[in-house]
Amino acid sequence: MAKNVEELFTLQPVVMKQLQTIFDKNRLAHAYIFEGEKGTGKADIMHFFVKLMLCEQPSENVPCETCRNCRRVDSGNHPNIHHIYPDGQFIKIDQMRELIGEMKMMGVEEGRKIYVLHHADRLNIASANMILKFLEEPDGEVTAILLTEQMQSILPTIRSRCQHIKFQKMPRHVLLKHLQENNVSHSMASTVSMMTNELEMAIFLANDEQFALARKTVLKLVDAIQQNVHEAMLVVHEDWLPNFKEKGEMEQALDLLLFAYRDIVSIKANPEAACTYPDMLPLFKEVALYSTYDRLSSQLESILQARASLQRNMNRTLLMEQLMLNLQEGYTFV
């Protein structure tokens, strides 16, 4: 098992309590949908729940980890568990036929049968209709677990026959802890944890040279804006525009700029607030001291408007020059 029970509780306390209560009260449903973004622990908690349902000696709604069934679940060799993954783009009807055939066979193993559909939103129409019939009339002790990041893409008729288990985003303090365990500095961890909730993506960003350059450029611009509009324009032309040639790079940079101004607002409200850029606290505290909430609000609005203009393919040089005037002086030109 990738994570121990304590880690799973830290990651998804509500879901873990919910599943343990279902097991404790012996209210196992025929089918569950585990819905949550990538990185929310769906696969690890599915593994825990499957093991709990099959464990020979569970204690306090936790699998024993040592019985034959627990060991076979961990090794991937339990004959009553079937995992279905998309074959190419979709989960296909032939995969469903094979699964249902296996589930209906008299197996050598007694007890509950469990099947897990990974990326269940990728069932095509034919395979979805076939699994629907099986969900309505399961043969014996059968539990289905459907994993998805996109609940709305699953047929309503399937959704209505499953118990919905909603996974929350990874708490930021948990992500920060994992990042620091992976030797990411506190400052960089604070920034990437605002850009993504998924650990692998956060580690990638933290080690990505382009992202480090983007972060550095954005903070250089924030510093220049506090000096005067000419310094800000200089950074735009010498650093910002050359570094962010692609639309996606510019979009990310504007997000990073927005987080900087959100930091300033947070610090003005609470000097001890958790920040995206803790390494910029001295400057941000000074800016917060001399800025009004109205001024900061209009600056945030200006960055959001610039982001919207980028989506409309406005000339990027003009867009950034206008943004500098808005952030510096609080007026616009068209």
Automatic annotation (TrEMBL):
This is DNA polymerase III subunit delta'. The gene is holB. It catalyses: DNA(n) + a 2'-deoxyribonucleoside 5'-triphosphate = DNA(n+1) + diphosphate. Its EC number is 2.7.7.7. The lineage of its organism: Bacteria, Bacillati, Bacillota, Bacilli, Bacillales. NCBIfam families: holB (TIGR00678), PRK08058.1 (NF005972). It comes from the Bacteria. It comes from Lysinibacillus irui. PANTHER family: DNA POLYMERASE III SUBUNIT DELTA (PTHR11669:SF8), REPLICATION FACTOR C / DNA POLYMERASE III GAMMA-TAU SUBUNIT (PTHR11669). One of its GO terms (cellular component) is DNA polymerase III complex. GO terms for biological process: DNA-templated DNA replication. Residues 241-328 form the DNA polymerase III delta subunit C-terminal domain. Keywords: DNA replication, DNA-directed DNA polymerase, Nucleotidyltransferase, Transferase. It holds the Pfam family DNA_pol3_delta2. GO terms for molecular function: 3'-5' exonuclease activity; DNA binding; DNA-directed DNA polymerase activity. InterPro entries: DNA_pol_HolB (IPR004622), DNA_pol_III_delta_C (IPR015199), DNA_Rep/Repair_Clamp_Loader (IPR050238), P-loop_NTPase (IPR027417).
